[in-house]
Specification:
The protein has about 300 residues and is α/β, with parallel strands linked by helices. Helix content is about 45%, strand content about 15%. It has 3 domains: about 100 residues, NadA-like (Rossmann fold); about 80 residues, 3-Layer(aba) Sandwich (Rossmann fold); about 80 residues, NadA-like (Rossmann fold). The strands form 3 sheets. A 4-stranded parallel sheet has the order 2-1-3-4, sandwiched between helices. Strands 6-5-7-8 form a 4-stranded parallel sheet, with helices on both faces. A 3-stranded parallel sheet has the order 9-10-11, with helices on both faces. The protein is globular, with a radius of gyration of 19 Å. It starts with a helix and ends with a helix. It binds 1,3-dihydroxyacetonephosphate (13P) and iron/sulfur cluster. 1,3-dihydroxyacetonephosphate binds next to loops.
Amino acid sequence: MEIVGLKERKNAVILGHNYQRKEVQEVSDFLGDSYGLSVQASKTSAKVIVFCGVDFMAESAKILNPHKVVLHPNLKSKCPMAGMVDVKGLRELKAEHPGAPVVSYVNTSAEVKAESDICCTSANAVKIVQSLPDTKIIFVPDTNLGLYVQRYVKDKEIVFWPGYCPTHMGIKVKDLEGLKEQHPAAEILVHPECTPEVIDYAGLAYSTEGIIQHVKASPKREFIIGTESNMLHRLAKEAPGKVFYGVPNATCPNMREITLEDVRDSLVKTQHRIELPADIIKKARLPLERMLRAGR
Ligand code: 13P
Ligand code: SF4
């Protein structure tokens, strides 16, 4: 296929998030969650990274590889949650809570990361907040993920930011109830960006890669998946013989912006290069490296 040849000629690696369109998943060298893809970005020997995910993921790859060419195949692929927190607002919140460290979800801009002490993903948010010696933590921007962390970290006060993921907020308990009625033997798995009520109903919440690992290890055969429905493609490949039921309309249009044609054009035209100011890269790198050092 054209993309395979182009990739070899350019010494490029294609990193794809688990929510990518299935044809984009098929051409990706590595698929994963935000944490796993950051690890891949930090250790690749390829000269060019083509990042098939939303904007903040490609930016993180650039921050971790300032001297490499990082390409984002479609600049319209932006995470709305990441756009919900800005530097001005974060500085104001820091001034209201002097001394409280800022844990920023990777779903933030490079500028917000540069104002943060440590980043986290949904795979290690609990571990990271637990590991901090402080009793008060500023957590941005996802309130639902912050509330999920608070379930496990009772001895710290979390200062929240009113951000959310429109896709996961759209998943309702009644959607899960409907599916459970139709498939009573199915185990329910959701993402921690879902509301607390949805997480309570499901009982199990993981990052996208965590969902895949759970499904592979589970003796169950049927699963209701409360996250972006493109995950079902990856799950079917990783766990053949198991059956998955997605929540209707659980789609992230932003993740779906990237098409196979965009990936090809990105390799042919070396577009769209992620460029960030050197001072932002320098400041945002430390919180990302701390996140990687923490592990899953
Ligand atoms: P993961 O890190 O779990 O893959 O999640 C990323 C994301 O954007 C979820 O909406
Ligand atoms: Fe952002 Fe939600 Fe889409 Fe993830 S699913 S990229 S958090 S809008």
